[in-house]
Amino acid sequence: MIALTPFNPDWGFVCGRVSTLEARLLTPEFFNTMVSHPKLEDVMRQLQDTPLRDFAVSGADFQDWSGIIDQYFHDLVKSIRKDCPNPAIANLFILRDDYQNLKIAVTGQNTYPFPSATLEPEKLAGVSGGDASHLPSPFREAASAALASVEETRNQQMVDVVLDAAYLRHILSLRETTKSELVRTYIEDFVLSHALVAIWRRYETGVSAKAIQRYLIPMGNLTSTLSAVLNAGEPSNWPDVVRGSIGELLRQAIEQDESDAARRFEDLSTNHLVAITQRGQGQVSGPERVLAYLRTLASEAHNLKLIVCGRLSRIEPDNLKRRMRVAHG
Q1: Which of 10, 32, 109, 284 has its CA 20 to 30 Å from the CA of residue 216?
Q2: 21: Cβ–Cβ under 8 A, 6 or more apart, which residues?
Q3: Is the model's pTM score more than 0.85?
Q4: 12-34 burial string, b = 16+ CB within 10 Å, else e?
Q5: How many C-beta atoms lie closer than 10 Å to residue 172's C-beta?
Q6: Do residues 132 and 144 lie in contact, with contact meaning Cβ atoms separated by under 8 Å?
Q7: Which tens digits make up the pLDDT trace of 32-78?
Q8: What is the torsional sign of CA 56, 60, 64, 66?
């Protein structure tokens, strides 16, 4: 069993705030009812029972709702980050948006649809013009490598490979900012599972293992495992070289869902990450309590987007239920 860090009064205020916010988390029963409504109007009506009630406009389309839910989640995480002695705990959940905007800037565009965690639009403007020198590290190095790949390959997929690897390396570096065993375990399994999904998706689009390896490796203490995956060929071979819980989830996804095993693995691994953090739910004052709440909130946001956007897109409820993630612990 992973031990929690001792009581730390520095985390008292934010844990007290989290304790209050936890009362607003949505239950599994709430999501099961919401996804099962026969009419879209009933789905939208149930949104009135969530923190999104102020945004519940029945005429919004799925793109509007995806953005609304993302912005709500992002704003709340940034607000909590202000109260955290270690902002890395919150950054685990919002740095991806910076890298998504960076992908857009590298291709010369100047409209950035994702909420900003660190990189404001004015910082991205120079990157759109081909200059990343003004960015803080490690964004500067990531953007420079991505810009170089554009010049070399003229291939958007390689920009994705470069910046996905940079994002995961950035997340893995946050592991060194904390002594919490639970947080460190969470980060390592997060990076491994997301790296596997990234490799899988690139494999499906025909990007060579050699091209992926050029940018993905090294990846800290995960280097040997990811190198073995890249040398293993078909995804069906990967469970033989990935050890532990993540390897078992890989095997389970491949056996359960031949049509889209990568997506199934992504959902299973996210539920695994939720399970890791649940031990921190009862902590009085420490980083694990905040991590547990934010992980639950992230899965809650996923479920809301899945249900609302899925129903707006006329996806059958049974198909949506399969993709719902464990949220409230």
Answers
A1: 109
A2: 76, 293
A3: yes
A4: eebbeebeebbeebbeeebbeeb
A5: 19
A6: yes
A7: 999 999 888 898 889 888 888 776 665 665 558 888 899 899 999 99
A8: positive
